[in-house]
Amino acid sequence: MNKQNVRKIRDVSVVVMVAAAGFSQPAFAYLDPSTGSMILSAILGLFATIGLALKTYWYKLKGFFRGSKPAAEQSVASDAQEKDEPEAR
């Protein structure tokens, strides 16, 4: 595709979008004030979830390349060692 065809397609797309927005029917909808805070809470929760997932996988990836065990596996291994050792009395 050359630049002229791309430019024509873009221009036609813009005209179609503007026409579609101009001829839309009015929506008789009501959003109460608590809807905004609900949407904001959902967005913040999504960002927190994504951040936690990235952090978790980052530490797993970092541990893989360092050759160390994740913290959960280390605590299980240390618990197993403590059970195998005889009690000193």
Shape: elongated
Helicity range? over 70%
The tally of domains stands at: 1
Low-confidence stretches: none
Average pLDDT for all residues: 81
With helices defined by DSSP (H or I, 4 residues minimum), what is the helix count? 3
Note the gap between the termini: 84 Å
Element-level helix/strand string:
HHH
Tell how many strands the DSSP assignment holds.
Answer: 0
Give Rg in angstroms.
29 Å
Structural class: mainly alpha
Structure description:
The protein contains 3 helices and no strands. The chain is mainly α and 89 residues long. The protein has one domain. The termini are far apart.
What is this entry, summarized?
The chain has helices at 3-22, 33-66, 71-84. The protein is mainly α and 89 residues long.
Secondary structure layout plus pairing:
Elements (H helix, E strand, L loop, with lengths): L2 H20 L10 H34 L4 H14 L5
Key features of this structure:
single chain; 89 residues; mainly alpha; 76% helix
